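Input set for joint prediction.
Command: fold jointly, output tokens.
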Amino acid sequence: MTPSVAIVEDDLALRAGLSRGLREEGFEVSLSVAGGTALLRGLKDLPPDVFVIDIGLPDVDGRDLCLALRARGVHAPVLLLTARGGITDRLSGFHSGADDYLPKPFHFEELVLRLRALVRRGGKAADPPSGLYLDLAAHEARNAGRGVGLTPTEFRLLAALLAHRGEVVRRHSLIAAAWPPGAIVHDNTLDAYVVRLRRKLDGIDQSSAITTVRGIGYSVG
Amino acid sequence: MTPSVAIVEDDLALRAGLSRGLREEGFEVSLSVAGGTALLRGLKDLPPDVFVIDIGLPDVDGRDLCLALRARGVHAPVLLLTARGGITDRLSGFHSGADDYLPKPFHFEELVLRLRALVRRGGKAADPPSGLYLDLAAHEARNAGRGVGLTPTEFRLLAALLAHRGEVVRRHSLIAAAWPPGAIVHDNTLDAYVVRLRRKLDGIDQSSAITTVRGIGYSVG
DNA sequence: GTTCACCTGAACGCAACCTGACTGCGTTTC
DNA sequence: GAAACGCAGTCAGGTTGCGTTCAGGTGAAC
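tokens >
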């Protein structure tokens, strides 16, 4: 289960700590930036499953950033970090469309639990994705409504592909994403996993969900 | 539309205030009771859109009540009211399947905003209820109408699984939920308890109530 | 036609998990 | 106080299935 999270935090030390900690807790940190403009610039077609945004950013207020995301049609849940615990901040945070907030200083474990809760809720309530997507809670893929059980490695590999839906993902990127850092992965191993994924995902009538881009990598529609 | 809310609070004055206030804010207070048994007895076929439950009830702990709701297949979001602001309470609240909490004393406006946020995110689609649920009073499980006595640890473990019915619960989450915080739990201990639960729960004809998700954890249908 | 990248079925080692039996400890019963 | 009992945790051995590799086949590029 690899929910992806984007972090927007200007305190470099805190941001690094969050990235490392969340990775250890099984999140994929798909984006980690210091400010709002960087977030909006770096946001790919597929948004992360959840945002962590500091309310006190140097370039733009976290609440405004939240509004900007919503205006762009991004409906992934947002957790606001606020240094000031005052009620006013909390309320305006909710008014801006944020789904939760956490006053600093906070316990890291609590952040993780809140994020999991948001992913759990948000993932289900989000716009119904058509075709192929991952059910994080059930730890399986869903293709045309059909549930497909996946092993941990298969799951990470498909997640890496879906994180860049519509793009070609290079072979070494897939290996970096789906295998532990530093692991030595034979080239054929990746091939074998793609085959397994195809066999599990593909219906009878359907052409393959994963397309090969010879010499580069793979992509999903 | 008028979101409906159920209130479980033993403080009579607070409960009356909440009922009146939430009605003024456009909620329909479909149920307003003083304790957990009253809630479970009064729960109609159609559950409310959201629950507000005091953690310190006279007859049953709010977290256990939350577990009981989840175990009965009720997935409407739950907001726990807690007088104690300690981190332990917060965490165990989440482990019990609650979706949010609010430490007393709280601003009424904040409660309203949190409830609106919970309703907006909405409950998950009701999963097909299997005949498995927990009987808090008797401290036993019921499977297809058959009562099954459980030891305390077995009970907590099954409760943690049922709190996330239909989802895969990670091994370390189960350990965190079913054993005291900080306890060192051998990996095999969890395995052994799952075996015991299966043996107790599984009927003759039935396939196992608890399914293994290799490398991740377990889940119940 | 040759080469190279990728496909695919089969096989193997190992880690994860299952399971029955056992021990230790606290409580209850006589 | 001794015996009986139930619960929690541990151990050893068996089983399963995941991850990986190998060998051979297939098809695209040139």
